[in-house]
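quick one: nickel (II) ion bound model?
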Amino acid sequence: MVTKRKLNKTGKITLAIAILVIIVLPLIFFLTKKYTKNEMHILKVTENYQIKIDYPIIHQKKLDNQIKEYINFEKEKFQNTVNLKIPVGENHKYELVIGYRLIKQVNSNNSIHHHIHFETYTYLGENQYIRSDKTFHYDSKNKKYLSINDYLDGDKSFEKLSVFSYYYAMQYIEEHGLELDESIIKQITTKDFDNYEHFFFKEDGLEILFPLYKISAEHDEVIKIIIPPKEMNQLVKEQYKVKEDEKKKEQIIPEKRDISKYKNKKLIAFTFDDGPSEITTNRLLEELKQHDAKVTFFVLGNRVEANQNTLKKAYQEGHEIGSHTYNHRNLLLLNDYTRIQEIKETNQAIENVIGIKPTLLRPPYGNINEETKKISNMHIIEWGIDTLDWKTKDKELIAKEIVDNAYDGAIILLHDIYESSVDGALLAMEKLEQEGYAFVTISEMAELKNITLDYTTLYRSFN
Ligand code: NI
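yep, here:
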């Protein structure tokens, strides 16, 4: 009897442990993993089209569902259209690019509002580059969507907003040398909710976007204005007012290291595109310290603001920051004005965060022509080893690809928005260290190899 009871007790404990190990622990793991994921990335390249989509996960069911619905709708619409079309040349594939900006507005009553802005570009052949914009404004506490009306202090404020907007929009077209009729500016800034769909409460004021394509098919530009805090505070309800004192720009002084000790080593430049990303890039930064590694990040302009702390950290820790353009569009498909904007706006966004403009440019898909090279005035950095990390998403394969193909002076292409790419890079570094390699930025590599970068060469390696 006694033995049987004892066995039963042991059995129960064993069972409890089994349940814990088999069900509860994986569930906790799964849930935390799911919870820490803060965005999704879709990259698809076929023979005749390419899709590049980034979208956030806010962990607000209602909002997340609607975002997913929007993304799926755009994706299906695009695929249905291009599936009926005949294939075009390798460098001119049909294209769908959706990027986003996420702006968190923390109000004086501590409520948080999310402003999510999607820029969608569809390329459907000959001059058919179509832009559309979509913005969600969401109050996470009360679980409801917001419009400009929720912020404005009555009808008089709306009238005032319209006047300010007109003034700043005129200033914008003058600064950007756009030839536009005054009546168009009147039309897009008039007191009408449809005109004020894309607004963002930011530290430097109230940003509003006025897409010109809504009015005229000739223009695909979007006029962007910022109403400074002082004026903004005249428009909004008490709880949305912000402090007016000018924020002093802090200067970031990057860590300097003595690279002379790498003189006789084999060198590799790891480069990471499409970021920064709060979770994956930060983890990479932490782990790189263990490999005495400095790398180069080619960041997307539209991600800079939302991930500015990560970017600051990367720069401060001695990594190099380059540009990967603003929206990740194929530069070969764009007109001169837009092409320059893609480069200029990114440089400005980076300078706003780290205090200096980047000197390195990596064009999306490596696509660039002589004309753009000339106007960009940047060093064009391509790559010699393509890990295809975005496709395989397998850390072992990614590491193998790097280690098997490594050589002194190599530039490796990776993407710091994927967990597997971060893991793969770190695994490869462990192996390459044993083979006597050191990991340097593009500029460090050039310096160590005694190469002065020029504006005409496409750099794919330094050997
Ligand atoms: Ni890219």
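The chain has a mean pLDDT of 92.
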